Amino acid sequence: MKKYFLLLVALPLLISCEVTETVHINDDYSGTVVFDSHRNENSYLQIAGENYTKETAEQDTTYVFKDYITKYNTNFVKYTETEKALFNRFKEVTVHLKKSAFEKEFRTTISQEFQKVEDVADLSKTENYVSDIVHNYALTAEEHYYTIQYTLQNKQFNRIVTITNDTILKKEKEKLSSYNKIYDLKLMQSYILEYHFPTKIKSVSNSSAVISDDKKSLKLQFAILDFLKDPLSTNLTVTLE
What we know:
Distance between the termini: 44 Å
Shape: globular
Largest sheet: 8 strands, mixed
Radius of gyration: 18 Å
Structural class: alpha+beta
Helix content: 25-40%
Number of strands: 12
């Protein structure tokens, strides 16, 4: 099965990718979340070498998750009620895929509008779940080992990462550690959180977060490999005024 982010399928993509997780929250606590991952071309060029100029991919596609539930309903109805409920959290999620060897742009943008942040799906799994429905794959075969969710209660926003499979986490740590011995990890492989709030930020649990001048947004950056090896390190609590 495909790995989380689709980044573990091919190591060059893993260590030359940049991810931005953006959340905009309105006054009524509704908003939008966007999960954007794109290949850093300078980094990928260093890894791909002469193969960089041999790429031929050209794709520019947008779809909504629920379209696949409808199109492959004969597969969808076979899932358990719990699995259907999980898929239904993604129904309104929109995916835009851009792969252009000519323009040298490889980007996946996944977005969702929400009435409350608790309704947000774990967007990085979207393409995996679409593939499951299309091919009638069992969810138990997925090798995800953590989930991401958000809460906003009593002026406290939380980004909550939960480990769901310690065995797979251990295997991924070992695999990712071995990559350190092979590649120069000064390549661009950043994961950026950009969160925008309707009121001013009072405090942030991670001291590395940069708060904007108007105190209504923050930016926090870390390495993708660090995130994948220790997902819990990216938990975040933001207290609003």
